[in-house]
Amino acid sequence: MESKRQKKYSSLFQKDLGEIFQQLSKDHFKGAFITVTSVKVTPDLGMAKVYLSFLLVKDKEDLLLDIQNSTKLIRQKLGTKIKNQVRKVPELLFFYDDTQEVASKVDQLFENLNIPPEDDNDDYLKDYKEE
User: Fold this and answer.
1) What backbone phi and psi angles, to 5 degrees, belong to 46?
2) Residue 68 domain flag
3) What is the structure's pLDDT at 108?
4) Is residue 37 part of a domain?
5) For residues 28 and 86, what is the distance between their CA atoms, to the nearest angstrom?
6) Which domain covers residue 25, as residue numbers?
7) Does residue 11 belong to any structural domain of this protein?
């Protein structure tokens, strides 16, 4: 369970990292639209797990690798933004968040289900209705 302090800093990091990715996207990440979906911070605020979602990207793994290789630059920019609010800039770990894609696939599966209407002549249903 996250403490109030962790939630506060998670929110701060999410907002600031979102702005940083907007600035860096054109020059460093091939114009991809990168969204910071969530940030999880350790209790000592020493490490932050950053979950990202991508739009307008063909190879998501390649983009994630580019981001991971740019961790030092991103961390420096984050440090500049939060220098008056945090003593130490956390280590950043980046992960791809595919929650939206999975939810979309599940929705599509439900839409494509073909459920026949209930038939009163089904024997197995009569047993349940009588009880």
Assistant:
1) -85, -20
2) yes
3) 81
4) yes
5) 26
6) 4-98
7) yes
The pLDDT tens digits along the chain (131 residues) read 889 999 999 999 999 999 999 999 888 888 889 999 999 999 999 999 999 998 878 888 999 999 999 999 999 999 999 989 888 999 999 999 888 777 777 878 778 777 777 665 556 655 555 55
Contacts of 75-78 with CB under 8 Å at 24 or more apart are 77/20, 77/23, 77/24, 78/13, 78/16, 78/17, 78/20
Based on the structure, what is the number of domains in the chain?
1
d(CA 98, CA 112): 21
Could you give the 3-state DSSP secondary structure of residue 65?
helix
Sheet holding 91-96, edge to edge: 33-41, 47-55, 91-96
The confidence score (pLDDT) of residue 113 equals 78
Residue 13 belongs to a domain with what CATH number? 3.30.300.20
Q: What is the pLDDT of residue 123?
A: 60
d(CA 128, CA 67): 57
**Residue 18 forms part of a structural domain:** yes
Whole-number Å distance between alpha carbons of 86 and 22: 22
